[in-house]
Automatic annotation (TrEMBL):
GO terms for molecular function: tRNA methyltransferase activity. The lineage of its organism: Eukaryota, Metazoa, Chordata, Craniata, Vertebrata. This is tRNA wybutosine-synthesizing protein 4. Interacts with RNF144B/IBRDC2. GO terms for biological process: tRNA methylation; wybutosine biosynthetic process.
Length: 670
């Protein structure tokens, strides 16, 4: 548990060094410095912002009181005291910090030998007594085990804590490491013993969904299990907990809500522009698995609780579902580790043959951008995966992610865009040539030839997370290239028509209101036009629109498909059209109470039904974002390939095997 404190201090320090937070004291308190990934920077930024926001709010709203105090539980090497003191916010407040004795002693020694810190803390110079590791004018550091309540109470009283003045308790990822009966007792003690109090709690939730299972496993492997999650798995349970333990006001929100509604727009944009970033799914999943809660009692109404003055549209309960679909592992006799990947693309090149390319995943026993191609072939009722031979691959493939592959004939597919790293320019176009006929029973001689296209630098192709969809105009086939992002533009809203045979861009008139820019949306061919659903918009907010680019005699027209109930905004899903119905598969949304399953939209009536995916027969968490899916119309089955991602600092999760979903029950024609 102490190790988690040290590693989070290093992460906060790295975020400060990159300009996410203003904190010049962290580097003085954290010995070792390591550069963390942009995703980790964002995660620690939102954590620091939430706690700082609450602490400063408390101090500002209690400034008319002659004396106030802050008690930080399990403070570790946090720099909160030094920042508040430096900002001149502690004129009449004392900060108490409690942590394990050896942590408190280490921190006290650091403060004493660091001029800048000891000057701020006003080191009184005397030898510290008993549990008090450091005692300054307005700063007391105590070495104590938080679970020993009666000793804690005695020590705090001895250090000068006053239970009659306004008190802010801060517990930032601390209580969850204690047995829940002990953390409950601590929450109750704070309410019972202090006449005017506020409590700020920041920690994890939603242990049972796929991301939550990866998160729990990570903490268990560190030997620091999250102990209150089973008892208090979500915001509602935490809120009930505080009411039951004697707090009179309590509000709580997850970190997606906090970032969207409690962080000013210009600050959101500043943070989004600090580093090249392309891990939106994991950022939003991390934020839906952490919450900030504020509770209070005995406070003047003008400042309770800290978050209630912000207009947060609250969730209208859980997502209503029309039923569930069972997931089954698609057993394959051959080696499928090459299919453990995300950000790849799968395309049906013949009725029982799927080509999967690109992405990030497992290759030769390590995690990297996948260079091998794989073909999945169904023969005699069974699927098998084969690694494909590539000709002329060289530099041309570059191990790309988030590209598109469009099959244009029996032996040709066109690859458009994709990226290597998010800071490098997108990649251009490539032909993939493969044999017109393949011996399904012996696919090992299947070869794909890569042919570069000149000029590869066409701006249209230098993008990723876009869509490329076949449309028909005046009897000719075109690819409609839409949206995505590039190294320069975090989101694109433009489109191009690419003549399928000549590969020339053609100007075709498009009427109707221009849709808002998006990437990570889905796009399907339908009735000569394109159905676009969801996506991530300009402010990194999921979109809930369904659009139809309808074919007219002289061009196309954008139309909105009205759905009821309205489609829950999402992105990073896949989509298929079958028999007048649009199927949306997986993705990421902000409803943290559940994960997206399959949504079926009836294109004639607009009726929108959500189905959950029943994963009881899978032995591992099924992460349905950055996956690929292929619809098999004969069997009315969906084959899900790959998916997953880099789960914050909890490790990379890749779905280990392809999964089959039978949709025959939900696709019955009415």
């Amino acid at each position: 548990v102490q190790g988690t404190g040290g590693s989070s201090a290093v992460s906060k320090c790295s975020a400060a060094a990159r300009g996410y937070v203003q904190d010049r004291f962290l580097r003085l308190l954290v010995g070792r410095q390591r550069r963390r990934a942009p995703l980790v920077h964002r995660g620690y930024y939102i954590r620091a912002r939430a706690v700082d926001h609450c602490a400063q709010d408390f101090l500002l709203k209690t400034q008319s009181h002659p004396r106030t105090q802050i008690l930080s539980l399990g403070a570790g090497f946090d720099s909160l005291y030094f920042r508040l003191k430096d900002m001149g916010l502690l004129h009449h407040a004392v900060v108490y910090e409690v942590d394990f004795p050896n942590v408190a002693c280490q921190k006290a020694a650091l403060i004493k030998r660091t001029k800048e810190l000891s000057a701020l803390a006003g080191d009184t110079g005397g030898e510290e007594l008993g549990v008090i590791a450091f005692s300054g004018e307005d700063y007391k550091l105590l070495g104590m085990d938080l679970s020993e309540l009666s000793e804690l109470e005695r020590a705090l009283e001895g250090a000068g804590l006053d239970n009659e003045i306004p008190t802010l308790f801060i517990a930032e990822v601390v209580l969850t490491y204690m047995e829940y009966s002990r953390s409950d007792a601590l929450i109750q003690w704070a309410a019972d013993h202090f006449s005017q109090a506020c409590f700020v709690l920041y920690e994890q939730m939603h242990p049972q969904d796929p991301f939550g299972r990866v998160m729990q496993q990570h903490f268990s492997q560190l030997n620091s299990a999250l102990r209150s999650l089973a008892q208090y798995p979500d915001c509602e349970a935490q809120q009930r907990r505080f009411f039951e333990k004697g707090w009179t006001e309590c509000s709580v929100m997850d970190m997606n809500e906090f970032f969207t509604h409690c962080t000013p727009q210009d600050e959101q944009q500043r943070v989004q522009a600090l580093e090249p970033f392309d891990e939106y799914e994991e950022w939003h999943l991390k934020c839906s698995h952490y919450f900030v809660l504020t509770a209070s009692k005995g406070m003047e109404p003008s400042w309770t609780p800290l978050l209630s003055n912000m207009a947060v549209p609250h969730h209208d309960g859980p997502v209503r579902t029309a039923g569930s679909i069972a997931a089954a592992v698609c057993a394959m006799p051959s080696e499928t580790s090459g299919l453990r990947r995300y950000g790849h693309h799968s395309v049906l090149i013949e009725p029982n043959m799927i080509l999967t390319t690109g992405g990030f995943g497992e290759e030769d026993g390590q995690h990297c951008r996948v260079r091998n191609f794989h073909v999945l072939i169904k023969h005699a009722g069974h699927w098998k995966a084969v690694c494909v031979k590539k000709q002329n691959s060289g530099k041309r493939w570059d191990g790309r992610l988030y590209h598109t592959v469009s099959r244009l004939s029996n032996s040709l597919a066109l690859v458009i865009g994709g990226r290597t790293s998010p800071s490098s320019a997108g990649l251009g176009m490539l032909w993939l040539k493969f044999p017109e006929t393949c011996n399904v029973s012996d696919p090992d001689d299947f070869t794909v030839e890569l042919v570069s296209l000149q000029p590869a630098s066409e701006p249209a192709a230098l993008r990723w997370r876009h869509s490329a969809t076949e449309v028909i105009f005046k009897g000719e086939k075109y690819l409609f290239l839409y949206g995505g992002r590039s190294a320069l533009e975090p989101v694109l809203g433009d489109w191009y028509f690419l003549h399928a045979k000549e590969l020339s861009y053609t100007v075709i008139p498009v009427e109707g209101p221009v849709p808002e820019s998006r990437h990570s949306h889905s796009a399907c061919s339908w009735n000569g036009g394109v159905l676009v659903a969801g996506g991530l918009g300009a402010a990194e907010q999921p979109l809930g629109s369904v659009l139809f680019l309808r074919a007219l005699e002289h061009g196309f027209q954008w139309q909105t498909v009205e759905t009821h109930p309205p489609l829950i905004p999402r992105y990073s899903h896949t989509a298929h059209v079958h028999d007048g119905k649009l199927l949306l598969v997986g993705g990421v949304w902000f409803h943290s109470s559940s994960v997206p399953g399959i949504t079926v939209i009836d294109l004639m009536t607009g009726l929108c039904l959500d189905y959950t995916i029943n994963v009881e027969h899978l032995e591992w968490p099924l992460m349905l974002h950055n996956h690929s899916s292929v619809f098999l119309p004969e069997e009315k089955e969906l084959l899900l390939i790959g998916g997953g991602g880099n789960c914050f600092s909890f490790g990379t999760h890749l779905n280990p095997e392809p999964v089959l979903l039978s949709l025959s029950n939900i696709l019955v024609s009415h």
